[in-house]
Specification:
By secondary structure, the protein is mainly α. It is built from 19 helices and no strands. The longest helix has about 35 residues.
Length: about 425
């Protein structure tokens, strides 16, 4: 249910509604708006990359993982609600709120994802992760439907919200805040912290977390399969998150989708993503996370290439749905494979590195998309640049040895 709750944030704000609204209505023009949005996404990535390993170590050391999740969730919800207030022309206010809210959202994922090895048995971890991603796509789908039917499509939006200055579009961020708050309640009501608070002083906890983090930095190459997985994910995930950040903008600017059409596009992609995550969670448990990820990367390469080459809206629809089928399984299998590799006493810490791997070079995808778009004066060229990340990521993933990773998670680590 937490996946169901938090997916509204990335679906409505990052990808399909607010990002498009920002580039087309808040920013002075679409090209400048795209550049600013890319910078905001890049800043988020850099901050999360810097914070996540230490915050993961701090959560493991203190025993306050659930408390940290509650704080970051609350901040993300408040940030989503505040995005209603920036009006056309208030560029820096909108970007500042978005960056802060997005940082909180991404950090909440560090603490939430680390629960996976605790709540799922090893033989079912792939499908449990897949269930989560599938429910996430369902949550994003239903939240998008609410936003569409209540505020975007009606001649008179609900609650008397006016259409002047895009108020009916901005209201969708309030939908996100309410959705996130309500549907995250089951997690906080039913899932308990599985470790006791340390009882040490705050200063000692912080110092010890720093020492643990430094030790893990030294040891992470000894957990060589985790290291290889994180390096591979660092590359292929960069292409993935750039698709998230610019998929709606690409549809709007290159193919002339209206905001309503972008929302329908997002609804369809959420359906495809949910079905893919659900179905391939079973495949993950049957053939293993590595093979599942490789299959999804192959699908993403094919879908991304098609999105570059097609010239019609129906063609982009087909390419987008194909991409959607593999996005959810890719993320779910990456999360579950790490869950099979991590030692129990460092779960949150390693999921901090997982977040780090997803953000450490995340500025590079938006940067390359923006630069290729500028150089060739075509967003198609920018999207084509993302193929590089998928190809290199797949090549690096071939070096991951699942059997050794499972074994290292269950015995003391010796130098390699």
């Amino acid at each position: 249910m937490y996946d169901f709750a938090n997916s509204a944030f990335t679906t409505l704000i990052v990808t399909f509604i607010y990002g498009v609204f920002f580039t087309q209505s808040i920013a002075p023009d679409a090209n400048y708006g795209t550049t600013l949005w890319a910078r905001a996404v890049s800043i988020t990535a850099l901050v999360v990359a810097a914070l996540s390993p230490f915050m993961g170590a701090l959560a493991d050391r203190s025993g306050y993982r659930r408390r940290f999740l509650a704080i970051t969730t609350t901040l993300a919800i408040l940030g989503a609600a505040l995005l209603y207030f920036p009006k056309p022309g208030q560029v820096m206010l909108a970007l500042t709120i978005f960056v802060l809210a997005n940082i909180a959202y991404e950090m909440s994922g560090v603490f939430y994802n680390s629960y996976l090895p605790d709540v799922a048995p090893q033989e079912r971890i792939g499908r449990v992760s897949g269930y989560g991603w599938a429910l996430g796509y369902l949550g994003g789908l239903l939240a998008m439907l609410v936003a569409l039917l209540a505020f975007i499509l009606p001649e008179q939006p609900w609650f008397g919200v006016p259409k002047t200055e895009g108020a009916h579009v901005r209201m969708t961020t309030v939908v996100v805040a309410i959705w996130f708050a309500v549907f995250s309640i089951p997690f906080f009501a039913w899932v308990r912290e599985m470790r006791q608070p340390s009882g040490d002083s705050a200063g000692e906890i912080v110092r010890d977390a720093g020492r643990r983090l430094a030790s893990t930095f030294q040891e992470i190459r000894r957990y060589r399969q985790i290291f290889r997985l994180l390096v591979a994910r660092m590359i292929y995930n960069d292409g993935l998150i750039t698709i998230f950040a610019f998929g709606g903008i690409y549809a709007a600017e290159t193919f002339g989708f209206t905001l309503t059409e972008v929302m329908y596009f997002g609804l369809a992609l959420n359906v495809a993503g949910g079905l893919g995550a659900f179905a391939m969670g079973f495949l993950d448990d049957r053939i293993g996370g590595k093979r599942t990820i490789m299959i999804t990367i192959g699908g993403l390469i094919a879908g991304c290439l098609a999105a570059v080459l097609v010239t019609s809206k129906p063609g982009l629809w087909i390419a987008g749905l194909f991409i959607g089928l593999f996005v959810g399984p890719n993320q779910a299998a990456s999360r579950s494979l790490l869950g099979r590799f991590v030692p129990h006493e460092k779960e949150t810490e390693f999921y901090g590195f997982f977040a780090f791997s997803g953000k450490a070079i995340a500025f590079l995808g938006p940067f390359m998309l923006g630069e290729f778009t500028r150089i060739f004066q075509s967003q198609r060229a920018g999207v084509a640049a993302l193929l590089i990340f998928f190809v290199i990521g797949a090549a690096l993933l071939t070096r991951v040895n699942e059997a050794e990773g499972f074994e290292l998670a269950r015995r003391p680590v010796t130098p390699v």
